[in-house]
Structure formats: C-alpha cells, structure tokens
Specification:
four-stranded antiparallel sheet, about 260 residues, mainly beta
Amino acid sequence: AHCAFELLERRLVLSRFYDLTLLRSTNEQTFDEDIIGSIDSFVSINDSAKAAYVATLLIASDNSIKGTAIFVDDAATAPLPPQSLNTNPAVNQAFAFPQINNDGIVAVRDRIAGSPPTSFIRTWDSNNLGAFNIVAGTELQDPYDSVILPTINNLGGVGFIGFTQGSLVSDVYHNPPAARGQDNPVLSVTGSGGLRPMLSDDDQIVVRTGSDTESEIKLIDAGVFDVETIASMSSGRWRALGNSPGISDDGQIVVFYGDLS
C-alpha cells in the first residue's frame, strides 16, 4: 500500500447557504400611507447593499394611481415603512432606470406627461429626502428632445442617452460634474432599447451601440474620447450580442453576454 500527498492551492469554497432579506414587496404601505402597487424591474445596488428602485404608488382609499416614487432600502430599513426620495409623487410624473452610487446618490430618468412630454436626468440624495439636482432635460435651455437611461459613478459623474434633431439622432453623453449644460457627446448610437450605458469611476463607459442583437459592444474612454470595440458580429465570433453590458468600478473588467458563432 502506498500513501501520496499533493500540495493543493488554497481556495475559497462558497457555502450553499445564503442570507436573503426581503427589502420590499407590493401591497406594502409606505410612510405616507400609500400602497405599493408595483415595483419596476430596474433595481440598482451599491457596495453598502443599499438598493434603489422605482415603485408605482396607489392611493389607499380607492386604489387609484398616485404616481411613481423613488426608494432606497437596505436590511436596516426593510422593517420600516419606506419613504420616497421624491416627496410629492404625481400621476403625470414617471421615474425610471434608477442607479445608485456608494454615496447614496441616485440617478434616475424623470418623465412628465405633456405634448410633447418633458424628460429630465436628475440625481437624488438618499440621505436628504426631496433634494435633487437636474443634470439634463428637455426644456428651452436644453438641446435635447428626450433624455433616458442614466448611469452614475462613485465620483458623482453621470452618463445618459440623449435624443436630438427631432429624436432622429441619439448619442451617449458624459457629464463629469453632473451639472446642467456640461454634457459631452462621446458616441453615436441607434435607438434606445438595450442601450443602457454604464459608467466607471475612471470615466469609461460601456454600451451596446444599437437596439438589435447585431449591434457592437463599445468601450468609451470619455476622458480622452477614445472608443474601443469589445465585441462585434464582424469578428466572426458572435451570432448575437446581449443588451446592458456592465463595467467594474475601476474600469478594468467589462461583462456582457452573447451567442457564440
């Protein structure tokens, strides 16, 4: 009989057990005694496990729609009635596409009904309810017909998709100080479906350039206006590329999905 030993590398083995915290669900009552009717599928989480989301609120007395609201919750606030960042939800105002950074600042698209509708990219401070900043919009001083799909990094910089020339032209815009009028177009794109850009702390933006699965995945260095193709149908490796690619905070890792040829 023989006994042999092999020196193995040290590895972290993940447990099959995990901790699950239910932050929020429909039919819950808010701090203002409204009812959560639905929760939007776009949810964002930061490194402190604070989650930002948008919910449609119902008036408790008759279940009519009151409007949409932005919420931020974590395990500590989950047992408490949620308080919205926007203190006066309105039926003609719809929020969407929230993204939260590590300082608790939430970037979100705000759309107000009208002919034509008005849209804004705003940032909201989850540590100061009701406090917001307008990054871009579609009012007279703005160059846009529509703005959508915001992203925010941990330094407070913001990116988004803006439509101009009668909504015929769409571009990715970068706004490092998150200040109105400080936007820089960094890449032309097509449409809006699946284009959600993601901004890293070193001002790199990853985005799919169009609404269809044949569009390319691009990495934009917004600081020097350099663009690199990460994945493309023309390379022969891919039959389709998925939407909403991601990037790490430090800009070193890009994640996307697709069908290989």
